[in-house]
Amino acid sequence: MARKYIVLVAIAILSTPSTSAFQTPTSPLYRQTSSLFSSPASSTDEPTTPPLSTLVKRVAVAGATGRTGKYVVQSLLAQNVPVLALVRDTDKASNTLDPTNELLTIRKTDLGSKEDVIAALNEDDGKPKCDAAIWCATGFSDAPDQSLWTKLQAVLGLAVKPKGTIDAVGLPALGEGLAKSRKRTLGGSVLPKVIMLSSAGVTRPGWSEEKKVALEGSAGIPIVRLNPFGILGVKAESEDILRNCGVDYSIFRPTGLNDKWPANQRPIFSQGDVAVGRINRKDVAKILVDLLSTPEATGKTFEAFSIADSEGYYPPASSINTALGRLQLDSETNGKGPSDEVVRATYAIMQQLLPGEKQAADQLAMGQTYEQLDKGETGRLGKKGEEDVDSAGLKPST
Q1: Which of 112, 158, 228, 251 could be disulfide-bonded to 301 (CB atoms 3.0-4.6 Å)?
Q2: pTM for this structure?
Q3: Is the distance from CB of 190 to CB of 298 less than 8 angstroms?
Q4: Whether 135 contacts 194, CB under 8 Å
């Protein structure tokens, strides 16, 4: 019942106008939007969505063998949707995916090559050409056998040539390759062609010091505080490139991916990049696939975590359409997100929905769980400010 009241309070706060949240009204830090509710929310009596296999011909999945990508592929195949898996290692793909499935094509693809990505979309392999894509690839590799020199090369590549990372090359290549294809529609509304799996927190390193202090519970979390190899900035730049490449898109920024967190839980969607929490990769994959048939997601950037509901009072909604229909289009804010008043109000609610008892995400060390923080236990990478980041296994790839 407590969470229900929190949601009701959130609606009341978001409906109440206020002055600038982070400084005096005469000098706003962020662009104010003209209307928070410019798009009407979808009706609660939602029409039944047709089978996904009737809405898309074939989906290209970048990063198909990753810990999230493999679930995306499985979900698509389970719904009889043909998949073109764009992978770096075909042997790994054959072991991770089901190469015997006739709907699946595995193609070795260099996601750091614009030409190779576009060629993959246009190849005549006797199957329908892709009319949609899901980007699950990351600028990080979790391969344990990289040498120190390989890691240094990767780090220097990110530092010197951020525009050469796979996020900054392969993702816009998917957009360019699909931009001129026929629009995907449902009931006259445009569906996204390219869906990007990004990350919550990508804008936070660039916040002003004033905003970081005001929203410390979002700005002080380990991944933002440490920002290994500047990966969040690379993701943010890649988002901007996708928004401007002319393709119908949707950008999904999940919070902390945690396979130990319960799956099949209710996602809580928001905008403004203040969400903090956990979500299972299986639920992330489900959302990514559902976005293919959700016109309310087109042209929008949003975050999500999930509420772990052990008692059954908060099951997942039957559709994400209504929740996403309440969110703003990126075009209404030049891709900068909601006004500072809305961000501040959203932050106040999001912080009350954190896991654990202390509900202090900014006190976490990288590799430390909320439960360990409650008990005063040190996380697997050490104390806050002394973390052994290299042990996290995060290695950028270019």
Answers
A1: 251
A2: 0.82
A3: yes
A4: yes
CA 151 to chain centre: 25
The contacts of residue 214 (CB under 8 Å, 6+ apart) are 21, 22, 344
Longest dimension (CA), the chain: 64
Annotate 14-78 with three-state secondary structure: HCCCCCCCCCCCCCCCCCCCCCCCCCCCCCCCCCCCCCHHHCCCCEEEECCCCCCHHHHHHHHHH
Q: Which 8-state DSSP code applies to residue 320?
A: S
Give the whole-angstrom CA distance, residue 284 versus residue 235.
17
The Cβ-side half-sphere exposure at 120, using a 13 Å CA radius, reads: 31
Task: Using the predicted structure, report yes or no on whether residue 243 has a pLDDT greater than 50.
Answer: yes
Cross-strand partners of 106: 85
Q: In whole angstroms, what is the distance from residue 14 CA to residue 346 CA?
A: 8
Cα separation, 205 vs 226, whole angstroms: 9
Phi, psi of 256 (to 5 degrees): -55, 120
